[in-house]
From TrEMBL:
It comes from Succiniclasticum ruminis DSM 9236. Residues 127-267 form the SIS domain. Residues 7-83 form the HTH rpiR-type domain. Keywords: DNA-binding, Transcription, Transcription regulation. Transmembrane segments: none annotated. This is Transcriptional regulator, RpiR family. Gene3D superfamilies: Glucose-6-phosphate isomerase like protein, domain 1, Winged helix-like DNA-binding domain superfamily/Winged helix DNA-binding domain. Coiled coil: none annotated. GO terms for molecular function: carbohydrate derivative binding; DNA binding; DNA-binding transcription factor activity. The keyword DNA-binding applies. The keyword Membrane does not apply.
Length: 285
């Protein structure tokens, strides 16, 4: 998690939360609820406020990738003075359509800005490299993530790839069993903890295929199976669950991956799009 060092704190706490121990979650809860207060605390004061030991706070900071408590506070300071860390825009019963629009759009902007701060750009480059060099891509996802998998199939076919999207677990495991070492899997999962998906990724891994995971949590069972992990998380609001909010962020990450691959396979893209547009034009009156 070295890429997060002294760059962002609050978004990292939210995306790492499920992978923390109970004592670490208690520290994370306190920091998330009282970030301004923590800025003026010593390590011992934070330990006292959370009924923790100084050593627990120190290990907590290192686990998140910071050099120490002061390193975490430096990243926290950057978050507090960033527009992306503004208070969540809750929708009230008497809000007008204009108010609702402003709040929904602001939440989207905040989510994208937080993801931009915490995205692992080395991992993104690795993902671009893997997809640029393969000829087959399998995209896996369930529910809302299944829609993103379908978007992958729709767009990445423009590179001339053999790309398929599966949201049914039986079709996923059947397809994964036929993968080859040169093939690539792109899995989309908010929690990274779906039992069905984990079985499919284990199958893909046993076949030697490379796995790219787009998820909301830095530490989850699925991240241990993936070769490349791209993380982005949106906060939950009263009108939208965390999983729903994260779909926009995951689509933005996918856009970055798609654009990077297009740079590498520009000739294929141009030639194929000519053919696609010609075929579509023939279907019009």
């Amino acid at each position: 998690m070295e890429n997060f060092k002294q760059t962002t704190c609050l978004p990292l706490l939210r995306s790492s939360y499920n992978g923390l121990t109970k004592s670490e979650q208690k520290l994370a809860d306190y920091i998330l609820k009282n970030p301004s207060d923590v800025m003026h605390m010593t390590m011992s004061e934070l330990a006292d406020a959370t009924s923790s030991a100084d050593a627990t706070v120190f290990r907590f900071c290192h686990k998140l990738g910071f050099s120490g408590f002061q390193g975490m506070k430096q990243a926290l300071a950057g978050d507090l003075f960033s527009p992306a860390e503004s208070l969540s825009q809750e929708v009230n019963a008497d809000d007008t359509p204009r108010d609702i629009t402003r709040k929904v759009f602001q939440d989207m902007i905040d989510a994208l800005q937080e993801t931009q701060k915490m995205l692992d750009y080395k991992a993104l480059e690795q993902a671009i490299d893997l997809v640029s060099k393969t000829e087959r891509v399998d995209a896996y996802g369930y529910g809302g993530s299944g829609n993103i998998a379908q978007d992958i199939a729709h767009r990445f076919m423009r590179f001339g790839l053999d790309v398929h999207a599966y949201s049914d677990p039986h079709l996923q495991i059947a397809s994964a069993s036929l993968l080859k070492p040169e093939d690539v899997v792109i899995a989309i999962s908010h929690t990274g903890a779906s039992i069905d998906l984990l079985k499919v990724l284990e199958m893909a891994r046993s076949r030697g295929s490379k796995i790219i995971l787009i998820t909301s949590y830095v530490k989850s069972p699925a991240t241990k199976l993936a070769d490349v992990v791209l993380t982005g998380l949106a906060r939950e609001t009263s009108y939208r669950s965390e999983a729903m909010a994260s779909r926009l962020v995951h689509l933005a990450i996918l856009d970055c991956l798609y654009t990077g691959v297009m740079q590498r396979r520009m000739d294929d893209y141009i030639d194929n799009m000519k053919q696609v547009r010609k075929a579509i034009a023939s279907q019009k009156m």
